[in-house]
Amino acid sequence: MIEWIIGILMVLGSLFMLLAAVGILRLPDLPTRMHASTKAGAMGAIFIMTAVVLHFSTGIVLARALAIVLFIIMTAPIAAHVIARAGYFVGVPLWRGTVKDELRDHYDPISHSLDHEELTTLTAKQKKSSS
Amino acid sequence: MEVVMAFVVATLFSCALYMMMRRSIVKLVIGLILLSNAANLLIFVVSGLTRGAPPLIIEGVDPSPFVADPLPQALILTAIVISFGVLAFAVVLIRRAYEVVKTDDLDQMKDTDT
Amino acid sequence: MDSLLLNSVYILMSLALLVAFLRLMKGPSLPDRVVALELIASIVVGFVGVHAIDTGVASLLDVAIVIALMAFLAAIGFARFIERRGTAND
Amino acid sequence: MNVLAIPLLIPLFAGALSLALWRSTRWQRVIAVLATASLLVSSIVLLQAVLQDGYVVLHTAQWAAPFGITLVADLLAAIMVVLTGIIAFVIAIYSLAATPAGHEKFGYYPLLHLLLAGVVGSFITGDLFNLFVWFEVMLLASFALLTLGGERAQMEGAIKYVTLNLFSSAIFLMAVGLLYGMVGTLNMADLAQKIAQVEDQGMITVVAMLFLISFGIKAAAFPLFFWLPASYHTPQVAVSALFAGLLTKVGVYALFRVFTLIFVHDVAYTHTILLWIAALTMLTGVLGAAAQFEFRRILSFHIVSQIGYMLLGLALFTPLAIIGGVFYIMHHILVKTALFLVSGISYRLLGSYELRDLGGLYRKKPLLAILFLIPALSLAGIPPLSGFFAKFIVLRAGIEAEAYVVTGIALLVGLLTMYSMIKIWAEVFWKATPEHTHEQKPLTDAVVDRGHWPLYVPIMILGCGTLLIGFYGQPIFVLAEQAAAQLLNPQGYIDAVLGVQP
Amino acid sequence: MMNSNTVILRTAAMYLMPLQLLFSIFLLLRGHDEPGGGFIGGLVAAGAFVLFAFSYGSDALRSLIRLDPRDLLGAGLLFGLASAIPSLLRGEPLLTAQWWTIALPGDAELKLSSPLIFDIGVYLAVVGTILTFVIQLMEAEHE
Amino acid sequence: MSGFFWNVILALIWVILSGSFSPWNLFMGFMLGYAVLLLMQHRVPELSAYSRRLPRVILFVGYFLKELFKANLRVAFDVVTPKTYMQPGVIGIPLSATTNAEITMVSSMISLTPGTLSLDVSNDRQVLYIHAMFLQDEAQLRQDLKELERRILMIMR
Amino acid sequence: MLLTVMLGFVVAMAAPWLVKLSGRYSGWLLALYPFSLVVYFAQWIPVIGQGHSQLTTYQWFPGLDISLSLYLDGLSLLFALLISIIGTFVLIYAGSYLKGHKDLGRFYLIIIAFMASMLGLVLADNVITLFVFWELTSITSYFLIGFQHEQASARKAALQGLFVTVGGGLCLLAGFVLLAIMGGSYSIQGILSSGVSLPEHGLYGAALVLVLLGAFTKSAQFPFHFWLPNAMAAPTPVSAFLHSATMVKAGVYLLARLNPGMASDLWSTILTSVGALTVITAVVMALSHRDMKKILAYSTVMALGTLVMLLGIGTELALTAFVVFLLAHSLYKGALFMLAGAVDHAVGTKDLSELSGLRKAMPVTALLMLLAAMSLAGIPPLFGFIAKELLFESLLQASVWGYGLLLLFVFSAILLVAVAAALALKPFYGQYLATPKTPHEPPVAELLGPVVLIVMALLLSLFALPAQQWLLSSSMLAVAGYVPEVKLALWHGVNMPLMLSAVSLVLGIMLWTQWHRVQPWLSRVIAQLSRFGPERGYFKMMDGITWSASWQTRFLQNGVLGLYMVVLILSTFLLAGYTFVRSYGLHFPLDVQDSYVYEWVVAFLLIVSALFASTTRYRLAAVAAMGVLGFAVALTFIHFSAPDLGITQLLVETLTVILLVLVLFKLPEFVQLSSPWERARDIVVALFGGVVMLFILVAAIDIQYFDSISSYYIDNSELLGYGRNIVNVILVDFRVLDTLGEIFVLALAALGVLSMIKLRAEDRVK
Ligand code: NA
Ligand code: NA
């Protein structure tokens, strides 16, 4: 029985990973690809680690698996955030099907400063300080 | 499997050599990385590949004689760290070279020979 | 553990690796490649987990811990580069 | 037992300590002189011990060979360590007056010590992979010393130096791996013993060729020497001198070691290849020098050519030839270091290494002229200086071995060597100082002036060495003879390392 | 100057770095029995500092560790060499391993050994080395 | 955080006293320590928030896993099927979170939830810009995200 | 006896100091050394004259059979006496000639060292010791020729002399080693008395050629004669010494010394022809010059040719003539040089066309010059006459070469007479021509030598027979191996040689009267001819060395790293590949049975990532691919039971990416630099390397001669190393020294990086 659960978990995990991979291959632009990779990757790891815990069923392994999952959950979004941000700021093009971009007018392409005020005031301020 | 890995080693080695013959210093550095990877893998492969038996002794159990050969692993570990140091030096070297020579073209760097 | 099952899991993940690498090769922008690299790191974590089950060596999980904790540094490095260099194709 | 460990520990400790004391260059200078002096003393103690016992063996961490790393000194190793001690000491003294403050601040002394540690380690290790590690220690120290100062020429030279040496390291590493895969051990004595039992030597010879190439690159043999003339004239002169004297000899030493101990089963093939490499090394090196008009470049090319002589000794593989090789190494280390140090003083005085900018030193600095002439004529093989006997032994061995063509090349190379030395002499010393040189300001401002004696004393010491070998060479010859006898009887080495089975 | 350090990264780094450092010491200490050891531990620790440096800048890292990386390096090398001294003092061959068991109150005992001292040296040297690389390169970026 | 700190101390003391370093024993010590703290919370006000947090954390984990799984499937569906359903876009969400830790936590959780990806926080830390994959119903999305934020803040405060 | 030589070097070392101490009398003071030698060697005359010899041996380098063995017999005694006698007067002469010269001390140092070396050369019995002194004379004469070193011409002449003599010397050394092998000894007497017939030995030809090359270069034989006249750049005392008794005679001495053992038909042929060629060349050249010193130099070359030829003829008479002519020449040539120098010194020029009518101002000089020139021309009653008579007589008897040689010599004698006349008459007689300095009689120190030498020449010819008994016959014994029966005398009655002498004298004088026409004409002819002459060859050779050197440097050391790599890779893998095929054959055990699909996938990923990293146009893409490669390698390590390696690889890999990213920030993007041809070439080379490596690796995988030592680690890791991670126990215990070295590598890398970034060249400029 437990064998079967482990097997299913492993297959699910690996399927998620494959899904993530296919996602980044198929999806049309950087942010959408990141949607696939960050989550599905983490999800796959979670499934497999669960399988690992069930397979070994010792405390040490549980602790380790927990640590792995925890670390992935902690680090993956951070990495995703910095890459997405960097990609957006240097102008990696968005998919043409993108329906909305509220950030477009709120960041300064030179300083990468970002504000929800109107950008015009920001740049005006900058011009003042630089002159 | 060793033979398959031998092909891998040979490919890595060829790529390394090719990159080391390029004129761009950055490519040269990539060649160096490939070279050390090739060398490490070569040692690993030539001393035999063992699946699923890392050279770790389980507490309270007599060591199994069928674990993977630990010696080449120790050697490779040393080699990895050494080549990391060397590589770090090399990348800073090319950066500095670019700074003073103002080009990354190695063919522009032959003053010291001729 | 059933070897057919294990093998198919391995094969699925290998496929994932290859597909991810395909994106890395295609790019088109550097962030795309970095995303692929990040995913490959995750897949390696999965690989290690399955491998631990396969071989019964729990110590292998330490490898996964290290990847989980450290591999994202490369992405941060790339991101830092991209932002400072101001270009996504380099 | 630990007489063997001390010469290795001293530079390691000195290096670590100098690094830890990076804030105080004064302490680093004190450590430099003390450490190199004690290195010299301990190396002599080691030589004494080796002369007494034949071999000194130390199983590090108490693990019996071949399981642990065994340090072992036979006579050749002990001689090399003593030479290292001498060079270390004179370079340390010279450095007191020749090292720019910035270099001192950014690790000159730790680098110096660790380079020495790498060299000594390479000489006394009995383990093939450990040899690789010491090579890398040496190599990285040399990288750092080579680039210390960060000038354009240094960078250009260093890129070639680094690349080609890393290629060599990779080949070395691969060769060690292949050998381990086939023979299952890393201890050189164990390897020698086991390889001797192998019937089909084919693959062993293949691996031997990889070692030949790898060490050949380190030794700057033909056609693998490019890195040397590209870089040796670029760093600060004390560094050049240290490299010139010591570094390539480590490659030569390694060739001597493995091609007398391990790969001696297909001598007709391996050593014939060595022979032609030696001949071409001599010839291309000396011709390279003839084309140069820069003090240190001439000297650098001559290193290549002299390496050929040493290899010739190994390649001929007769007792006399090996003696000649060993003798040549001893002579060359002293002489080449001295010449580089002289070039440093002339640079200090006139601000250039270019022969056309130099001149008039015979009249201005007669002492320097003499200090140049002794090693220069010695290098050229003028009797009764050390170089003559070195050359004569190799020559005699060549004729006795009926290797006439190679011997003829050796003679021709001797003539051309003299031509180069005379060129330097005529240009730097005899010629009047060129007018335009007076306009150049000597580049001494970067160097803290600590008087001139630290510059001259080292050359005097080395000069006395070469004179001593010349006039009183018999003891040195006997030393080389004993060393050669050990090299040609590897069983002694094997027994000493592995312990004789009763 | 570009505003590339975000709140999110900085905050995450603040939480991740201690974790990584702790983990590195864990790897160091149990390396004799399980995967780990001085190198691996040192590399992880160095990674932790790199994360900090990327988030807060190299100056912040310098003031965090207070020591110059060279001090770490020197200490690491001296530790590594120091592990050789006990053997010399006892007249044994260079680097012979020494094991000391210190009895603690109760049944517990503390196992100290020269290989452990050596591994600590390795750890420090690795950290010092990588910190040197990263700090130098980051400082040089501004030129 | 002092509550957690004390809990760990108690667990370690338990481990030392019992003389067994096994993880199970550590877990045991942790549980016992938690129980002790639960008893003490009335006397020591600083600890009260801590003991309440644990059940909330467990609840949150459950909620989060559910969301994660649910939305993953949605993305998966879009990935594997040839037809594209998504309507991606970048929107700004006003933040209730104030401290750095809160903002980071919220943004991370949003990133981990499929279909949404945090891009950056405005300089004044009022707005979180996210990339969303399915903007068919933007209002519902905003509501879901505010719910997520609320739950996070509940365990953090 | 060794002391005589060694003392010379000590005196030489002390000379600069002594010169300072003794001021203007330094010449006289230092001459005490050669003078004491004269006394010392004179004592030996009675003993040696009896046909005895004296061999003293001191150990020097027994391992190489090099001993400081000195051998005194007639030949070496004759030379030793000449060296010390002429040396005495040269030193005195130099004290005056170079009075107040700032480098006088150094000059004495070198010339005394030279003297001692020459002495050592003629006394040495061990061939290597002889060679040591031989080279010492070359190198000291280099310094003497280049004494006026600030003139480029002097440096050039010095180099020329050195290059030729040292080049020959190296041949000589090889010849000596061959001789020693043939004779089984490094002692000349040992070789000569070994009983081995050298000419019948298989190595004889090679040894002969090598030894002759040494001797000919040193003794300025055709075609190596050109360096000697150029060596006239040296101050006159040097010329006097070098060309009369010493340096240039070293080759002749050596030939004479080896004559008893080496003589053969081949020997005769070579020596006679080379000697004859030298003679004719030298005489013609002598006549073509106006510079007194040059003329003397060519006459020296001619004398050397004569001596070599006489050795070649090798008859009893010829060998007698050899010894006599040797002595005669040394005496008159020493005198002539000193006189020419004295004239030059006194009037400021040595160009014959500017000299005339000095007899009144310098009568003594004129007289001495006349006497010395008479000896040169072979006019009685000077010793030169006896030599010339013997010469003609031996030629008359020489069966092999017949009258051709005789004719040649008569012709050269005619020219020589003309030369002698030019030297002795042209400057002193006729109309006085204004000279740069007011002519005056040279000081005593400069005339003392010529006087003594000419007196000796006179006395020797008058008392030829006693001289022969005391000294010359023992020399002949050494040269010929037997005591010749020929009796020396000034007057043999009217015979053929006398007739020939007379003829040559008359014709010579006649020729001299036409000197002012012949000389410029010859000079022009020579100038034309010298375009094909051996000196031209020398310059061509020097140019050739420089040219081939720079060509080689351009070709090999061309500064292109890519090409260096090509050479390195090809050398490595041609050698390894050839060895592989030669000694192992072309096996390729393609066994891929034992592998799983996913392993293939990882292998494939490794290959693809490497290929992609090497081909992508984007450098950061290459870095990312390297990252993937690192992951795949780590995966391989993990999969094949190396978790520690896996972890390390992952971490190192991550840090490498970070470093690369930090560095590449400052570097430019990839551009295509190399041409398609270069890329194709590099691909072929790289593939070649990879394929050879593949073959070697696959072969090595298949081979395991011995079990690995690893079982020891596995068994003892926990037992003795107290650790369960065997790899770690190896790293920190079994092979701790490796790891120790490794952290030093890291520290060194850090130091290197630190200094490269922090220590700026710009800082230094500031
Ligand atoms: Na094998
Ligand atoms: Na094998």
Task: Outline the structure in words.
The complex is a heteroheptamer. Chain A is built from 4 helices and 1 strand, in the order αααβα. Chain A is mainly alpha-helical and 131 residues long. Chain A has 2 domains: 98 residues; 31 residues, no CATH class. About 5% of the residues of chain A have low confidence. Chain B is built from 3 helices and no strands. The longest helix of chain B is centred in the C-terminal third of the chain and has 32 residues. Chain B is elongated. Chain B starts with a helix and ends in a 13-residue tail after the last helix. By secondary structure, chain C is mostly helical. The relative contact order of chain C is 0.14. With 143 residues, chain E is mainly alpha-helical. Chain E has one domain. In chain E, strand 1 and strand 2 form a beta hairpin. The chains are: A mainly alpha (131), B mainly alpha (114), C mainly alpha (90), D mainly alpha (502), E mainly alpha (143), F mainly alpha (157), G mainly alpha (766). Strand 1 of chain A pairs parallel with strand 1 of chain F. The complex binds sodium ion (2 copies). One sodium ion binds next to loops of chain G.
Comma- or semicolon-separated keywords:
B: 114 residues; mainly alpha; Helix Hairpins; elongated; C: 90 residues; 0% strand; binds sodium ion
Break the fold down into its secondary structure elements and pairings.
The structure holds seven protein chains of seven kinds.
Chain A: H1 2-26, H2 30-56, H3 59-89, E1 100-101, H4 119-130
Helix pairs in contact in A: 1-2, 2-3
Chain B: H1 2-20, H2 25-46, H3 70-101
Helix pairs in contact in B: 1-2, 2-3
Chain E: H1 7-30, H2 38-56, H3 58-65, H4 69-82, H5 85-89, E1 99-103, E2 109-113, H6 114-141
Antiparallel strand pairs in E: 1-2
Helix pairs in contact in E: 1-2, 2-3, 2-6, 3-6, 4-6
Bound molecules: sodium ion (2 copies).
What's the β-strand tally of chain G? 2
Shape of chain B: elongated
The count of β-strands of chain B is: 0
The number of helices of chain B is 3
Q: What's the helical proportion of residues of chain B?
A: 55-70%
In short:
Chain B is mostly helical. In chain B, 64% of the residues lie in helices and 0% in strands.
